[in-house]
Amino acid sequence: MQLIVNCFVPWQDGFVMLQKPRRGWWYLPGGKVEDNELWRQAAMREFSEESGLQLVDATLRGIYRVQVAAGPDSTAKDRIIAQFVGHGATGTLLKENREGKLAVVKADELAHLPMDEGDRLMVQHTLAAETRGTSVVFFGRFTYDADHQVQSWTIDPDNYLNSV
Fold first, then answer.
1. To which H or E segment does residue 44 belong?
2. pLDDT by residue (tens digit) across 25-79?
3. pTM
4. What sections of the protein cross the membrane (predicted)?
5. Whole-number Å distance between alpha carbons of 22 and 154
6. Domain parsing of the chain, residue ranges
């Protein structure tokens, strides 16, 4: 099982996202946890490496299991994504890095970005919790077909996006 961390960071009336050139999809900055590295430190390191911004701290917002079916030219993948919210960002946001192009995304733009639909749901939940000022931690599971299309998903607490 692969462990991935990413970090949602509010910045200049929006939040930082990265567009990777392979599919043109947008993601929160993040990456793999290195051996003997703690998850929170990995999220802060990955975010800083990819964005150019430094963080004072980060808090856990969600843990998601992502399973992708094998395809004719790919093996099945089983991942845990630990999503954090970064705090106290300072510095100058890079325009791009080795991974792709960086931008500040406004909340109302999220629904229209080309994205992995599971990632969109994760970010929507984090954005809703940040907007409400709650400390909820989400737990979820996503299954994908070999073409990386969401087949099923669940996030606990359920119905969070529709609750007041």
1. helix 39-51
2. 999 999 999 999 999 999 999 999 999 999 999 999 999 999 999 999 999 999 9
3. 0.95
4. none
5. 27
6. 2-162
